[in-house]
Amino acid sequence: EDQVTQSPEALRLQEGESSSLNCSYTVSGLRGLFWYRQDPGKGPEFLFTLYSAGEEKEKERLKATLTKKESFLHITAPKPEDSATYLCAVPNHSGGYQKVTFGTGTKLQVIP
Amino acid sequence: DGGITQSPKYLFRKEGQNVTLSCEQNLNHDAMYWYRQDPGQGLRLIYYSQIVNDFQKGDIAEGYSVSREKKESFPLTVTSAQKNPTAFYLCASRVNRGTGSLVDEQFFGPGTRLTVL
């Protein structure tokens, strides 16, 4: 069964203090990995899909990387508006059906 | 604008009532999903549908039912059999252009918060 684990559960950064969030997974044949940002009381906002190990994608201050066992979301010089919960998820195509397994998220707080 | 709409935003249910949550998408996606989110827990899959008139149970389907009569619509009914329905419900649609495809993206609606009175 696919499993997705995110760490840390919560992260508090000063504005401008760069850091990374981790998403580790166990899947039977990686087919991709999703990253999302979720603000309180709202639906998750799609950020990236990473399709294979070695791939990187960037969006503003965010950079996502993927290895065969984990993904990192690097946040460079964060601003208070980057405060949110960041979710990762892994698609599962077993049995011909397309399920997606989510981690529990990392709650990021950026302090001015 | 293309996207996913969910209604209502807030819903209150009395004990013993069935309620239906609406989800509509105009992204022309084949696959649609319903998730439940509780504080401190990840998103848990209730039901999903890969095509019209077909749907599959997810990990926590008991007490829920769905239909998929149109590509654009995937309503979720929370029945009285669901013992703890208070939660934030999220609908999603997904584009995945086949095995080996380089386009696989899942988008979410704004959510419906259901509270049992």
Proportion of residues in β-strands of chain A = over 45%
User: Strand share of the residues of chain B?
Assistant: over 45%
Low-confidence stretches of chain A: none
Largest interface: A-B, 25 and 29 residues
Count of β-strands of chain A: 11
The count of helical stretches of chain B stands at 0
Q: Main beta sheet of chain A, described?
A: 6 strands, mixed
Average per-residue pLDDT of chain A, rounded, comes to 92
Unreliable spans of chain B: none
CA radius of gyration of chain B = 14 Å
What is the count of DSSP helices of chain A, taking H or I runs of 4+ residues?
0
Beta strands of chain B, count: 11
Q: Which shape of chain B, going by the Cα principal axes? A: globular
> Looking at the structure, what is the overall shape of chain A?
globular
The helix content of chain B, as a percent range, equals under 10%
Overview of the structural elements:
Chain A has no helices and eleven strands. Chain A has strands spanning 3-7, 10-14, 19-26, 33-38, 45-50, 56-59, 62-66, 70-75, 84-92, 99-102, 106-111. In chain A, the strands form two sheets. In chain A, strands 2, 4, 5, 9, 10 and 11 form a six-stranded mixed beta sheet that branches. The radius of gyration of chain A is 14 Å and the shape is globular. By secondary structure, chain B is mostly beta strands. Helix content of chain B is 0%, strand content 51%. Chain B is globular and about 45 Å long. Chains A and B meet through strand 5, strand 9 and strand 10 of A and strand 4, strand 5, strand 9 and strand 10 of B.
Summarize the structure.
Chain A has 112 residues and is mainly β. Chain A is 0% helix and 57% strand.
Task: List the defining traits of the structure above.
heterodimer, A: 112 residues, mainly beta, six-stranded mixed β-sheet, 0% helix, 57% strand, globular, B: 117 residues, seven-stranded mixed β-sheet, 51% strand
